[in-house]
Amino acid sequence: MLAAVVTWAGLLTGTAGCTADGTVGGAFGPPAAEDVIRVSPDDGSKGVRPGSALRVRVPDGRLESVKVVVERDARESRVPGRISGDGLTWKPDDERLALAAKYTVDAVAVDGDGRRSARHTTFTTHVPEERFIGYVAPEDRSTVGTGMIVSLEFNRKITRRAAVERAVRVTARPAVEIRPHWFGGSRLDFRPEHYWKPGTRVTVSLNLRDVEGAPGVYGLQHRTFTFTVGRSQVSVVDASAHTMRVRRDGELLATVPITAGTRKTPTYNGRMVITEMLEVTRMNGATVGFTDDDGKGEYDIPDVPHAIRLTSSGTFLHGNYWADTDVFGDSNVSHGCIGLRDVKGGGADTPAGWFFDRSLIGDVVEVVNSKDKEVAPDNGLGGWNMDWRNWKAGSAVK
After folding, report:
1. Coil, helix or strand for 193?
2. Which of 79, 136, 159, 273 is most open to solvent, judged by the fewest CB atoms within 10 Å of its CB?
3. What is this structure's pTM?
4. pLDDT per residue over 54-71, tens digit each?
5. 52 with 41: CB under 8 angstroms?
6. CB-based contact 283:301 (threshold 8 Å)
7. Coil, helix or strand for 259?
8. Is the pLDDT of residue 362 over 70?
9. Centroid of chain to Cα 195
10. Given this model, what pLDDT does residue 68 score?
């Protein structure tokens, strides 16, 4: 009888024991932490692709806490996430993994038998060889005219346009509907249906970091900037009457005599937006296709004063000191630009100087009654020449 008791006691000794945290384990001790807390991607993984899912799971019991930290650009930040209602799964709020980053996961869980386990894992993500960025107009914290269009020029061709479009948000206060339009694969513009109301504050948020814009090409930017719409100034150039009517908030400021493009080299019709203002610049006809038989520019003026760019193709409204003064308000003699009387070096009290001092990036200059076609919507910020229905149709998000 005594031998039987000893044998039974020995069996009990072999089948039970204390674990390190004081809980009772089975014949082979407590389960391994990786069997209780399952983390994906796997511990020690390298070059994890951006489409991979970050998850922390337990087969039974519950997760008590999960802390995930991401390190990139020598900075650490907590990854927001939540444990499911049944306590079995944790997942991040943002499913996208940061690229070129190290993730650290610390989780604590209790299994179905009440035993507590903790797990620490790390993994690193893919480092892309190719990145894209967007060059944005207007500048941060600038004050612009009522015709400003938010324009992003990408340094690489975007083929996954919907993903990139979703990562850009343009909002206004007071609120107004703002819609995007793609011009080809490298330019994305945003505007409301009508010119902005003076005083509007516009916020542009670029969440392009790690967005795949083309196969293997990922965005680099994560930034927010704002600009303010100043007063409304719209100037109407009548090429046949040789005048420009300048209106500020609807009130006529002045009617200025001008000279526009000749019949051979007319000025574009349509609405154009000021995108650049230069106190003085050089203008050479060869840069815009105006050359003589020897291939030299039909004109080369090294010191054009009060130069205001209206199109990317080279249409300017500028001071003109070399033409006879009697052409202003009387005849069109330019190669397509709009000329205002000025003096060499630029005069503050000349028509060109007066207009320059009262202009902002984003002001509208509209040309009517010229012998040329309407300016293309993608030539400078010419998007106002497209009707609202066609503008909205240019979105990649359907």
Report:
1. coil
2. 159
3. 0.80
4. 999 999 999 999 999 999
5. yes
6. yes
7. strand
8. yes
9. 21
10. 98
